[in-house]
Amino acid sequence: MALVLATDDSGGPEVFASLQGEGPSMGRPVAFVRLSRCNLACTWCDTAYTWHFTGDDRPHRDETTFERKANQVRLDEAEAAARIAALGQDRLVITGGEPLLQAGALATMLEHLPDIAVEIETNGTVAAPPRLDVRVDQYNVSPKLAHSGNPAELALIPERLDAYATDPRAFFKFVIAESADIDEVLALQDRYRFRSGHVFLMAEGTTSAALRERQEWLSDLCLEHGFRLSDRMHIHLYGDTRGT
């Protein structure tokens, strides 16, 4: 078994150190590993190179597809762990794509990293098996709203959302494109009773200007409904680029 990773701009595996740009750990120095493949297809996805490969006709606003061979690389779990350890960070963020599609290989990789704290960024549709779950310190769950283009029966699975809503390690991050999206978040909050302080609203955007424009009204919605505001700090610092 091996992990299938996304590639950085050099064609190597996307394993890097940076500051966490979103959610409850924003601003914290971490190691990142970005895995390839996803079971959803968000029209605004800013990491479409992890899933929108040539021949995939699912819609994306850029209408760009990527050659699978050039954008995927396989690494033995021990080799991936060694690359992560060499970054010298005490916290690891596993992102994608949808990382939990490779849960077994991830669990094996983390057995080589017993002293590192682990965050997994997930769309909330997949369960981590016990062998992996026991090694996870934080889940950053980002359920996809209707504007993502994913049908609710694929993106919002009640069994999975119930499980994450009752897990104190889980934080929820909703991507917001327009103010009307808050109605869907409020309906989900009413249904799943997310923990107080565990829900973030984050503006959709891949430029500082777009984020700032939306945050002007998104901050008011957070104040009105008691949600937390998440920036996308890495966009301001590095732009919409790989390996950041």
Structure characterization notes:
This protein has one domain (3-238): Aldolase class I (TIM Barrel, Alpha-Beta Barrel), CATH 3.20.20. It is 31% helix and 20% strand. It has nine helices and ten strands. It has helices spanning 68-71, 77-86, 103-111, 130-133, 152-155, 158-165, 181-192, 208-225, 233-238, and strands at residues 3-6, 15-19, 29-34, 72-75, 91-95, 117-122, 138-141, 170-176, 199-203, 228-230. The protein has an eight-stranded mixed β-sheet with strand order 2-3-5-6-7-8-9-10. Strands 1-4 form a two-stranded antiparallel sheet. Helix 2 (77-86) crosses helix 3 (103-111).
Identify the notable features of this structure and list them briefly.
244 residues; alpha/beta; TIM Barrel; two-stranded antiparallel sheet
Q: What topology emerges from the helices and strands here?
A:
Elements: E1 3-6, E2 15-19, E3 29-34, H1 68-71, E4 72-75, H2 77-86, E5 91-95, H3 103-111, E6 117-122, H4 130-133, E7 138-141, H5 152-155, H6 158-165, E8 170-176, H7 181-192, E9 199-203, H8 208-225, E10 228-230, H9 233-238
Parallel strand pairs: 3-5, 5-6, 6-7, 7-8, 8-9, 9-10
Antiparallel strand pairs: 1-4, 2-3
Helix pairs in contact: 2-3
